[in-house]
Amino acid sequence: MHKTLYTKYGENLNAGRILPEYPRPQFARDSYLNLNGYWDYRISKNPEIPESYDGRILVPFPLESALSEVTRTLYEDEYLIYHRVFNLPDNFIRDRIYLHFGAVDQDATVYLNGKKLGKHRGGYWPFSFDVSKILKEENELVVVVQDPTDKSHHAFGKQSSNPKMIWYTPVSGIWQTVWLESVPENHLLSLETDPDFASGTVKFRFETQGPCEGELRVFDEDKLLVFKKIVGPELTIRIPDFSPWSPENPHLYDVEVRIGEDVVKSYFAFRKISIGDGPYGKCLFLNDEPYFLNGVLDQGFFSDGLYTPASDQAYVDDILAMKALGFNTLRKHIKIEPLRFYYHCDRLGMIVWQDMVNGGRYSFWKMTALPTFGLQRLSDVKNLGSFGRDTEDSRETFREEMRKTVELLRNVPSVCFWTIFNEGWGQFHSLENYEILKKMDPTRIIDSASGWFDQGAPDLASKHIYFKKLRFQKEERPLVLSEFGGYSCHIKEHTQSHKQFGYKKFSSVEKFEKAFIDLYEKQVLPNIKKGLAAAIYTQLSDVETETNGILTYDRKVCKLNPEVIRKLNQKIRF
């Protein structure tokens, strides 16, 4: 049993003001009613709405987390039933009202005032209901959740019913903000932005409820750059002499879209990620210049809230801590974050390498142990059973969830990379899936098989190396070290358990830092001239018994000296 370990934000949590920030920064309105806070809950073998409840749960923290104030596992044959009564503020109601859920893990059925609104499956994606005709003066909201965790072929990531080592405590129920917004009858349903770096133009695509007529304004800080009338579902503008986005200069342009009386605020950036001939072979280019991606693996777990941080500032702190060390990239590992995480990466300047979230069967021996020590050649067309995706239904589920991920994050400037499969888990037809994803999104680089079981997809040669010295042979594709390091330093006062897991253990932060510096100076730096184009160190923070983070799990200790490591990282470039 893990001891409770709070972040500084969890220690000072205000239950009346839980994650109050607007959840959708690239599609923001002034109409917003946050429903986070205390709800009633019941755990039952029956999905029927009960007459009484077991107690209170603090939404949106997962049931299993300390911040939920329940800290209880939900088993696959159980239902977690949420209940909340709310009133609408004066002057809130316009023509239509939407009820939004940021994410609920995994299967959710929603009722409002006794009427079933619908079901949603998938623990990482937002969903909404038009509740305009159902709302009353006082409203009763019920959400019934079932979560099979790792018994599902739907996405569940690093959650495990038997957490240990690289597998973590499950996350069940509501784990992102629940909220309401009110809009005019004629309103904007979606906004897609497609900046083109070569021409300095931006294509906007509008989906509306009602006539697609209105106005678009683009600002550079407070300066109005563009004003255009909207007369149809597409509009292209040009920004002369634009400022490119990069980690060193995270320049964003603000957008205001008016459709009738509806006003939506957004932003975009000009940035281009591509592949070209660098000084030492094929490499990655940012804005048409060779750019070495120097980053860390980011699991997105927090000691008190699991998937959900106690404060929006926790995301900011993680990003700024890595920037202070001199890193420019976060590989978001097998988790999709709330949109506010990506907003902070956009505005602060941090490249995101985004993994698809996997589900399905996992085999430690086939997918981790044997490949780590050399068994890395296996066809993902002829040996589907070895990868845990041997049914067509399971494969179609993965592709649908990949589509939803691209749709959700398409407009985010900081997301420059996709990982389809990690270390063989769930891998199938990776060349075919590469083509599907490239057609969905031709603007980003794709790591189709991160670690091993490479089938030769065009963009990257992606390696994971933990127990061997870093040695590489030049490839026709950019060579990326998408995972390495994993050095463990256990700090007793800032860990949840006496157990510790890592790929090499150190008894003090001094020894840990020396080994870290040696790894970069003696192995990473020399390999840049041998064709290395990117390096992703494992990992940003400790997670439960996995104590190989740069930060402790409660984020209270950085095991590296920022000034020293920043100077070291300034050498990690072309």
Account of the protein in words:
The chain has 574 residues and is an alpha/beta fold. It contains eight helices and 32 strands. The protein has an eight-stranded parallel β-sheet with strand order 27-26-25-24-23-32-29-28, covered by helices on one side. Helix 2 packs parallel to helix 3. The longest helix is centred in the C-terminal third of the chain and has 20 residues, at 509-528. The radius of gyration is 24 Å and the shape is globular.
Determine the structural class based on helices, strands and strand pairing. alpha/beta
Number of strands: 32
**What does the radius of gyration come to?**
24 Å
| Contiguous helical run count | 8
Largest sheet report: 8 strands, parallel
Major sheet strand order:
27-26-25-24-23-32-29-28
Termini Cα gap? 47 Å
Low-confidence stretches are none
Strand content: 25-35%
Report helical residue fraction. Answer: 10-25%
What is the averaged pLDDT score? Answer: 95
**Shape assignment:** globular
